[in-house]
Amino acid sequence: MKRALAAGVRGFLPKTTSAATLAEVIRTVHRGGRYVDPELAAEAISTGDSMLTAREADVLECAIDGASIDEIAKRVHLSPGTTRNYLSSAIAKLGVSNRYEAALEARSRGWI
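The chain above was modelled as a monomer; its predicted structure follows.
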């Protein structure tokens, strides 16, 4: 969330937001304001800063179910080689021995 806000995102809402709230938030953002759902903000604060890049998190999210390199690559629209590179980087950053352990560790920290 911090990266998105730094990149210029002006609002965060859960998918379950009512139409009335959505309309009001759109008006707020259109006037130049910001809106972040309080529960989403609290969750983002409690998870801490991730040491993973967005792409590393993407590939780990796909690895959590035991998918093969080729399956992960297709899901995230990368080549298998690039997918391996992102997985290797995430594994090294998390200090674990394989992609499944990396995915579990990232999930336990709230990063995926």
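The chain is about 60% helix and 5% strand.
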